[in-house]
Amino acid sequence: MDILVINCGSSSLKYQLINTDTEVVLASGICDRIGINGGQFTYKPQGGEKSIQNIEMKDHEVAIKIVLEALTNPKTGIINSLSEIKAIGHRIVHGGEHFTHSAIITDEVISHIEECADLAPLHNPAHLLGIRACQALMPSTPMVAVFDTAFHQTMPPKAFIYGLPYEYYEKYKVRRYGFHGTSHSYVSKRTAEFLKIPLENSKIITCHLGNGSSICAVENGKSIDTSMGLTPLEGLVMGTRSGDIDPAVIDYIAQKENLSTKEIMNILNKKSGVLGISGLSSDFRDLLAADEQGDLKARFAREVFAYRVAKYIGSYTAALTGVDAIAFCAGVGENAKFIRGKIVSHLQFLGITLDEKANLATIGVEGIISTPDSKVRVCVIPTNEELMIARDTKTLVSKIK
After folding, report:
1. How confident is the model at residue 18 (pLDDT cuts 50, 70, 90)?
2. In-domain check, residue 218
3. Is 271 annotated as a binding residue?
4. Do 140 and 221 fall within a single domain?
5. Which pLDDT tens digit goes with each residue over 334-380?
6. Are 210 and 98 part of one and the same domain?
7. Does 248 lie in the same domain as 124?
8. Do residues 138 and 204 share a domain?
9. 283 is in an annotated binding site
10. Domain holding 243: CATH number?
11. 373 noted as active-site residue
12. Which of 81, 128, 268, 324 is the most exposed place for a label (fewest CB within 10 A)?
C-alpha cells in the first residue's frame, strides 16, 4: 500500500511517499516558504537525483498540488496515477486528551483538532491547512491524523498534573501532554527489538535530541512520563527554547525590561535555549564549530544541554525504578558524539561506561555505544516518525469496509 505522509508547518510542507508493504520511501521532499516570496520545492525520488526548484506557492493547496504533480510526472515521477496513493497520513502536534490513538480524519476529528489550536497555535492551524488542501485535491482518499500527544496519554495522573489549583485542569485541561510521541513510540519499540528486550517487560528511556528536544520514560512499551508539558516549551534546554525555569522569572524580567507577557513568552520560545546562552546559534553544528575555535560560551551552552539531559535521565530512572536501556535519536542524538559522551559521563552511577570508539563511529546509524560490561545498554536508534505515521495510517485504513 502506497501512503503519502504529510507534515505541515505554517510555511512549509514535508512529505514522503512510503510503500508500507516494503517500508521503502519511494519519494520525499519539502515545500518551503509557502505564502512567502522565494518559494522552494525539493523532490527526491527513490534511486533518482534530488531536484530543487524555485516555485512560488501561495498556499498549502498549491504546495500539495505541486507534490502530486511531481509524484506522477511521466519522466521523474514514481507512480502512474494518484489512484495508487491509497491513503494520506498527517502529523498533528496536539490532540489534547481526546485522542489516545491515531484516528481516521472526519469532520468530528477536524473539530477536535481545531479545539486544540490554542494549545499549539504554531502547529495545529498549519496541520488543518494541509488536511483541507488534501481534501480539496483528493476528496475520495482516506486520511489519518497521527498525534504527537497520543503516545503520552498513558501517563498516570501523578505524572501529568501540575501543582496548580485543580480547577484549572477541570476547566481548561491544563496539564502535561508531552510531544514527539510518534518518535518516542518508534524508538522505544525499535530499541527493544534491536537489543532483543521483550517490549512488554522493559524499561527504556528515549532521548529525542534536536533543535526541539524531549525525553520519555517508557515502561512495557507505554509512556509513563515525558519532559515537555502543556506546550513544547517545558523540559530540556533546547535550540531556542528555555526549557524548565522558575515561573517567577517571567514577571521579574517583565518588570525589569518593561516587557509584556507575550514578549517574554516570545523570548522563552525563540531567543533562549542554547541560542540565548551562546549568543551565537541554535544549531548544534554551529556551536561545535565555534567550540573548536575556542568559543567558551558555545562550549558552555553544549555542556548545559548535556547536563540537563543527564538530569532527566536520572529522574526517569527513578520514575521507572530502574532502566534496561537508554536510546538517543534525532539530529543531535544521532550525530553529536561529543554531547552523547558528556551525557553518558554523568551516568556512571548506573554502571554505564562509554565505548569511546563505538561512540565516534556511530553517526546516524543504529549502534550500541556503551561497553559490553555496562549494566545498562546505551544505543543510538535513528528515529523514523514518517514510517510510524505510515504504519498507523495503513492499520486504520485497512479496517475501513
Report:
1. very high
2. yes
3. no
4. no
5. 999 999 999 999 999 999 999 999 999 999 999 999 999 999 999 99
6. no
7. no
8. no
9. yes
10. 3.30.420.40
11. no
12. 81
